[in-house]
Amino acid sequence: MPGNAVTTMLAKYPSLQPGALHALEVEFGVGHAGSLTHQYFGYLVDLAHGNLGLSTNFYPSSVATVLGQTLPWTLILVGTATVISFALGTLLGILAAWHRGGLLDQLLPAFTFLQAIPYFFLALLAIDAFALHWHIFPNGQGYSMGLVPGWHWPFIQSAVYHSILPALTLIFTSMAGWMLQMRNVMITTIGEDYVLAAQAKGLSNRRVVWTYAARNAILPNIAGFAISIGFVVAGALVMEFVFSYPGVGYTLYNAVTSNDYPLMQGVFLVIAMAVLIANLLADAVYVLADPRTRTGTAY
Amino acid sequence: MAIGALPEVTQTTRRGRSARSFPLKAKLGAVIIGIFILVAIIGPYIAPFDPSAINSAQSTPLGPNAVHLLGTTSSGGDVLSQLLVGVRSTVVLGLVTGVIATFLSVIIGVSAGFLGGFADEGLSLLSNAFLVLPALPLLVVILGYLPNAGNIVTAFVLSILGWPWGARVIRAQTLSLRSRDFVAASRETGERTWRIIFFEILPNQVSLIAASFVGTVLYAVLTSVALAFLGLGDLSAWSLGSMLYWVQNQNALVLGAWWWFAPPGLCVALLGMGLVLLNFGLDELGNPRLRDAAGQRKIGGHAWRPADPTPVLRELQAPRRRLAGAMASSTPGVGGGGRGARFFIGRHKIAASGRGELQ
Question: In this predicted complex, what is the ipTM?
Answer without folding.
Answer: 0.77
